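Justification of computing resources. Each target in the renewal requires a structure prediction run like the one illustrated here; the chain below, 151 residues long, is used simply to show the kind of job we budget for.
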Amino acid sequence: MPRLGQGYVWQDLQVGQCFRTFRRTVTETDLVNFIGVTGMLEAIFIEDGYEGAAMAGRPVPGALTYSLIEGLILQTMIQGTGLAMLELQQKIFAPVVVGDTVHAVIEVTAIRPTSRSGRAVVSSRIDVWNQKQQLVMSYLAKRLLAGRDPR
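Resulting structure tokens:
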């Protein structure tokens, strides 16, 4: 019986295939919880209106934006099928601040089956956009994904 919410096995993906995630608004609570658990207690993140800030608003660490997007991907695309993150190359193009709403477009760029257990290394490009349709982050990811159960 199919399981609701199950992610894609690598055989269900094709090079060039694209997906768009749901959107997620970054909240003050997200920022406070993230910097608290990671120890990223920089003044620009903990002090509203910090004098030395290079920009207006409450900036959030790029790592928080990345984590929120990975959460959206995990909950939908790779739930139960993602086995490991193998490689990550990331570029940040614009800041994200509390109140911004982000989403991502994922493009499958390569699929390389492994010799073990029907698994494959799936490469993808993930572009992260804000509510103004501005590209804020882009990263390349290589993940180990499960294959279809041969039983």
